Amino acid sequence: MNPQTSIIWSENTPLTRKFIWQHPLHGGNKMEDLQSVIKSRRSIRKFLPDTISDDDIREIVDAGMNAPSGCNSQCWQFVAVKDKSLLGKIAEGAEKGIREFYNDANYEPAYMEARSKKATFFANAPLVLFVFMTKLHYYDEQATKYYETLGYSHETMMSALGSPDILSIGASIQNMLLTIHQKGLGACWMNDPIAAQANICSVLDVPGTWRLISVIPIGKPAYHPRDKQLKAMEEVLIIR
Ligand SMILES: Cc1cc2nc3c(=O)[nH]c(=O)nc-3n(C[C@H](O)[C@H](O)[C@H](O)COP(=O)(O)O)c2cc1C
Predict the structure, then answer these.
(1) Residue 175: how many CA atoms within 13 Å on its side-chain side?
(2) pLDDT tens digit at each of 240 positions of the chain
(3) Ligand 1 centre and the CA of 43: distance in Å?
(4) 3-state helix, strand, coil in the chain (%, to 5)
(5) What distance in angstroms lies between residue 188's CA and the mean position of ligand 1's atoms?
(6) Structural domains in the chain plus CATH codes
(7) Is the overall model pTM greater than 0.85, yes or no?
């Protein structure tokens, strides 16, 4: 743990001290553990058939539910699918939807085959988490009304505000990916299937107001991922 962090915190208000007391990262070298989990996580796309327990599913989703969200809206919903026959139906719908989506592109059949395989490999995992976004209710009603008078829809208003709804879902997904990895499981954050979201939502029979944001196949990794080359710090960071 960074000693500086603990000094700053311990000099803070009683409320913050309570926070430190309850904070699971306080003390020991747990912060190093977090760094190693963050740095060793990789996308996994092939899985062993071992099933994932409901307790594990709940712990993974619990991590997602603890993410920050715009206006604390917690604008997420999760559907965890283990049922192989349901996954087969979802993959079938997804493949059809992907083919329809790229229909006008006139792609070579071989390319189209590869495209649809890339978008449906999630169905080979023992568990697939479908992550949905519900409506984020912006806390400032006056501002919301003003956006409406200007003709903004909810979506365009969110976009003007920097898409806090989608960012919140992203934070939730990253929390889950790290938890999955910490458990010795693997996962892949997938957005390729989203082009077929109407078909997927129809098979899952979820409310029409839910928007499918990402699909996350989860399971025991069937291989060791290759090393990843990161960009140089100087390339991505400016300190002024
Ligand atoms: C928003 C988002 C969408 C992604 N969609 C897909 C996808 O549809 N299919 C896939 O195989 N990987 C997908 N990925 C995984 C990325 O390819 C992967 O994170 C990237 O190559 C870095 O590798 P790493 O996760 O092993 O660090 C997605 C990642 C993110 C963040």
Answers:
(1) 18
(2) 333 333 333 444 445 444 444 444 445 456 669 999 999 999 999 999 999 999 999 999 999 999 999 999 999 999 999 999 999 999 999 999 999 999 888 899 999 999 999 999 999 999 999 999 999 999 999 999 999 999 999 999 999 999 999 999 999 999 999 999 999 999 999 999 999 999 999 999 999 999 999 999 999 999 999 999 999 999 999 999
(3) 7
(4) 55, 10, 35
(5) 6
(6) 1-40 (no CATH), 43-223 (3.40.109.10)
(7) yes
